User: What shape does this take?
Amino acid sequence: MRTKLVLVVFLCVCLGIFTTCSNDEEETTEQSLAEAPSAATWLVIQDQILSRRCVSCHQDGTSEALQSELILTPDVAYNQLINRTPKNLTARAGGLTLIGTEGSKSLAKSFLWEKINAPNEDHFYQDHPSYGTIMPPPPLPPLTYGELEFIRKWIIEGVPKAAVVADPRLLENIDQYQPQVAFVPPLPPKEGKQLHVKQFEIQPNSEREFFYYQPLNNPEPIYINQVEVSMKPGSHHFLIYGFQRNTPAFMIPQPHIYRELRDENGNYILATIQSMRFHTFVAGTQWPKMNYEFPAGIALKIPANYGFDLNSHYVNRTNSEVAGEVYVNLHYADPKQIEHTADVIAFTNFDIRLPPHQITTLQKTFNFKKRVHIFQVFSHAHELNTEFRVEISGGARNGEEIYFTDDWEHPPILELDPPLVLDAGRGFKLIATYNNTRDKEVGFGFLSTDEMMILFGLYYTD
Assistant: This one.
């Protein structure tokens, strides 16, 4: 099965500046092989990416190579990258390798991945200030999204040296990530609707979570096949909820009103809690920017005269007031092009009790009542979570791990292409590990200092 692990943003690779290829016969032959449709993925990466974008700096004798202890010329690059401990002391202490051979697990523990992931630069500089400079170093441009996706695919497939594990057509996408100096609202979609949570304030050393209901004003059912979210920095999460069909009319909130989850004393507001009982999850992210496009022919069907309850949660651990703001672009699909209607996974373990000063691992299994085709999953937990794993439950693949993350703050979105098919009665076992370093027990709750154990995702049925 081909898996596609998306970190809500596309990922970037490598360092250096453009260097031209030599014209000797050996390198010309290698280049022609790398450009062949059946060329090994690693050969393409070396020839079309590393040699062109990285080798000018990362070759024997350069100051960059001496400083990083990393040489990326064709004769040594593979051995230099695979299963090597980085020179950076902080990354070394954190148990990172440059690139490992364990697929998605290695992606989560890759120092090279941290260094090259330019679209995640906020996380890089805020959470890892001692990791150095993101690569390629500004003002040099990052790789194209196609190149990034090509390398990401190679890593999660186990970094083979001789196999073809990524489609060369990915390289045809030549768009590049553009760092934003300031928050810039996205343009509205050509076919769809833009939702906007206007600027709001979060007081110093506090957190704020609220709901904001926005009608879609859709007299007919609509199909959504792409969701974009763009937020100002500081967000803990942003979730989009709908309301169940059996929701009493009086429980549908008034539009365009900030409905706080807690009052000024930290107590939950009953009216807000009551409305949450009727929520049904639609989409969400913990990343400042997310752009998720459904596979061809699949979309969420939204009933006529519907609305979304937008849930924003910001955490401000500074001594100054900060501002939050959220934009959501909903892209509408042509109903004639839809073959499958998507359903939502929201598997939640509410039974969380974490004793103080202990490492605790929790497990909970959820099964499907029908045969399902799962094409997306991602986890949600809070800051005590150290690992989140998902295994298949039941059937011939019982116990097979299909998802792993050790980054609670930026959990990856795993796309499954082709979809993972599970028969009725099969499901997922969620395995989450927490390290409670505090002096009191921690349980399930909505504050960032509480904990959660949730698996979100998307699927369709036969």
Summary: The chain has a mean pLDDT of 87. Residues 239 and 284 are 4 Å apart (CA to CA).
